[in-house]
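Quick one, T. Sequence first:
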Amino acid sequence: MNGNRFVVALFGILVTVVIGALAYQFIAPLTISVFLYYSTRRYHHALRRFRLPANVRSAIVMASLAIPLILLISYATILLVVEARAFIDQYALIDVASQNFEWFAGVDDIPEFTVQGLYDAYQSGDLAPFIDFATEHATFLTTLISDFFLNLFVLTIVTYYLLVDGHRISDWLLQFDDGAIIREYLEAVDRELEKVLFGNLLNVLAIALIAIGSFSAYNVFVPAGAEIPYPALAGALTGIASLIPVVGMKIVYVPLTLATALRIALSGDPTNLVYVAGFFVVAVVVVDTIPDLVLRPLLSGEQTHVGLLMLAYTLGPVVLGFYGLFLAPMLLVVGLTFANTALPRLLDEDATAEATASPKPVDGRSQRPDHPDDAGSPDERPTG
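Structure tokens:
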């Protein structure tokens, strides 16, 4: 029987190692899937009031995440392309590029981003440098695009089925209960992860609304020449950027400030730069600093220290890469919850066992477990 157990255990270890090695190849999408699962689980449960099955609720949650994000990114990309083309045409940057970049020398003008415009550019040969560039780097571009869609597919499938069958995974883990310690610990981790990661989602939404309101209000009170472009889009992107460690929202409002200041400086009216400085102050104080000081403590978990959480968001990507932004906070929650929940119980049990096993002289004899007379309870010992 022991031999059979050894074979089964060896097989289990082998399977675990293989699955772990395969999962490590997709560590980024798997980590983000767990992050999204805990961030949206309350929303998924809230849809129960409509008496919808779990798979329909999961599809609604995924669509609620994907559709706005796709529309936002598409809208931002289109606006970026349009504004970049207008900027290039206005300051004749195409001539500068043709003189300084050899592969760009054949381009006389940036084509219009329409079907007819692209076709005319292809007919005139203006697209030839771009086609040659793409052909030379075809392997790299193909690998990049295929990896992106593969990881996106894994992320979508795993997040969907975590929402549908997450309770089954929980029930499977809770069957390995030992004196209620495992159950207490896993349930505490589950609750804390949901509070911390759902708090992050609320933080993104709150900062996005604050940024949209602040940027729109700024445009109301300043001259037309000092207005920032697309305040609603800039505010939404600021909310999403709040997830990025260290730089955070600065990755949006700093370039926005510089672009607005550059436009004013090139227009020859530097007096409006004062308003741009005011916008930067509003972005730093109202959008960046105050929400960070007020919202994060309110939206963090019960047991996870806010400072440690911010440190995890900062150091995670530095140590682990991009996915560390999502994995480090979860590891922090798992570790702190173990220290607060399971570890005291384990130490108490060890202390209790040690006290029980300590020598207690009875009739001049030691009561150690290895004593011949201690094989059973006092009632089980043979009477003289």
